[in-house]
């Protein structure tokens, strides 16, 4: 039953993640924390596996779709991979220093709430925000490092931070941004998982891992299919509703962890 619940959460989040380009981890991590289904370290690891499988499947399915300028998105992805390594190390240090799983969840939820609030404001006022056309590779790399640092520490894979950053740096449309975001997630999550394996994988149930990966693959297939058939406006509406819902879950996690 436990693995089945994780599968339902993973496939639902992955459908939405593939549809909007946020990866699904930003949905799964807060939901898993709210339901207290897994310890924080295990949740980070399993979410990473799910997000990686979903992003790879979604990119393969959408390989013929319009793509962002990969000569700039690729350095962003490798910067995110380097940042992801740092984020994993930081998570380990914080977890060891705090020594209390509820406090770790509280710190993660607070940071994620701030980032999601920023992403929501961006979505609301996007038409007033002028995107850039950054071509300075060191700037792109630094941006990727910061992105990967937050993503790995929070265990979310990148999520809405990717979309905002890709628009601001390269002035991309939603569908181009979705593909670029999934590419960044795939590269950074691969690096993070390699580091986690090298440092020691947290204890987990094999059925839970299989359930999360199957949910990621299934959600990636469904979400990428739906993405081809819906308008940009509908995809943006789904994105905004989803961000509001996740903000609500983060607030719940903060209040409960603080009590």
Describe this protein with a few key phrases.
globular; 259 residues; 10 helices; mainly alpha
Q: Can you walk through the features of this model?
A:
By secondary structure, the chain is an all-alpha fold. 81% of the residues lie in helices and 0% in strands. The chain has helices spanning 2-20, 25-35, 40-61, 70-98, 101-124, 137-154, 159-170, 174-199, 206-227, 232-258. α7 packs across α8. The radius of gyration is 17 Å and the shape is globular.
How far is the first residue's CA from the last residue's CA?
29 Å
Name the quaternary structure: single chain
By DSSP, the count of extended strands is 0
The fraction of residues in strands falls at under 5%
Continuous helix count? 10
Sheet/helix structural class? mainly alpha
Radius of gyration: 17 Å
Q: Which spans of ≥5 residues are poorly predicted at pLDDT below 50?
A: none
Listing every helix as H and every strand as E from the N terminus to the C terminus, the arrangement reads HHHHHHHHHH
Provide mean pLDDT, rounded: 86
